[in-house]
Automatic annotation (TrEMBL):
Keywords: Pyruvate, Transferase. It comes from the Eukaryota. It holds the Pfam family E3_binding. Belongs to the 2-oxoacid dehydrogenase family. One of its GO terms (molecular function) is acyltransferase activity. This is Dihydrolipoyllysine-residue acetyltransferase component of pyruvate dehydrogenase complex (E2). SUPFAM superfamilies: CoA-dependent acyltransferases, Peripheral subunit-binding domain of 2-oxo acid dehydrogenase complex.
């Protein structure tokens, strides 16, 4: 039937131009017959018409829509509505301080290690009530940081059979600064010896290269250590958060409320050294030693 229509159009001289346009553009732009007739009669360029039919075919209504869009006058651009000026905030009283070369290189190294070593994170709440009572009872100069260093060493020895454990310590040193150093063979030291080693490290006034298997971070107003490890051999970093007071109902069945001091502890562990189960074991053992510090005296 299509051939008969084309033959009739050839006989009609007026349809010759339509036939040529139809044969060339239909195969190229997939014009339907009714659309091809409109394109030829109106001298349109089929390549500018977007077809919405099956397989991208140009339908008759596509040509009609193209012609209406072409004939409609362009809408005048709307004048931009002026926006209210943004109020200028008062500038804060910040002062940029230059970072010395040693501190800058340490920060760059920390960020490099953090990118290279995959981390995983755990957190626990430690009840500090018994620890505070223990420190008062021994009547010594030890503090929670000293106990945390010993607890981290014992927790790591319980999870891994290590002959010697060196612990990295990161403590506050004045405003907005910290000192880091390593205490060797912590498993052989008492709490008092650990305290003296930390005080000696503070007196040096500068950070030392770290070589410990685990790090205890005790900084003022720091709740999370951020997961920065000193090397790929380090197991992880334990960060002591600021203690806070809370209340709870006694577990002896009586309606008695007691006040306790809790401390949030974060453990960023090296995923190349520990899996999730091992990380939880170290964290659980650390919490147990912190809540039962008398076992650290053995």
């Amino acid at each position: 039937m299509l051939a008969s229509k084309l033959a009739r159009s050839v006989v009609n001289p007026k349809g010759a131009a339509l036939l040529r346009h139809y044969c060339s553009d239909y195969t190229k732009h997939f014009l339907m017959p009714s659309a091809a007739r409109l394109v030829a009669l109106n001298h349109l360029d089929a390549s500018n018409i977007v077809g919405t039919g099956l397989g991208g075919r140009i339908m008759r209504y596509d040509v009609v829509a193209f012609m209406e869009k072409k004939q409609s006058p362009k809408k005048a651009a709307k004048a931009a509505i002026p926006k209210p000026a943004t109020p200028v905030a008062q500038q804060a009283n910040f002062v940029d301080e230059a970072v010395d070369g040693e501190k800058e290189s340490r920060m760059q190294f920390d960020q490099q290690v953090k990118r290279e070593i995959p981390h995983a994170y755990l957190s626990e709440e430690v009840d500090m009530k018994r620890l505070n009572a223990f420190i008062s009872k021994v009547n010594a100069v030890v503090n929670p940081t000293d106990v945390a260093v010993k607890a981290a060493c014992n927790a790591l020895c319980r999870q891994q059979p290590l002959q010697s454990v060196a612990v990295n310590v990161c403590v506050s040193a004045g405003w907005n600064d910290a000192l880091s150093f390593t205490i060797p063979e912590v498993q052989k030291k008492s709490l008092l010896a650990i305290h003296e080693a930390i005080e000696a490290g503070k007196k040096t006034g500068k950070s030392m290269p770290l070589s410990g298997a685990i790090t205890v971070c005790s900084l003022e107003n720091v709740m999370s250590g951020g997961g920065i490890l000193s090397s790929q051999q380090e197991v992880g970093t334990i960060t002591l958060g600021s203690p806070y007071s809370t209340v709870r109902v006694s577990e002896d069945g009586e309606d008695k409320i007691e006040r306790c001091v809790m401390e949030k502890v974060h453990f960023a562990y090296n995923a190349l050294k520990l899996d999730e189960i091992s990380g939880n074991e170290v964290m659980s053992a650390f919490k147990s030693f912190m809540e039962n510090p008398e076992f650290l005296m053995e």
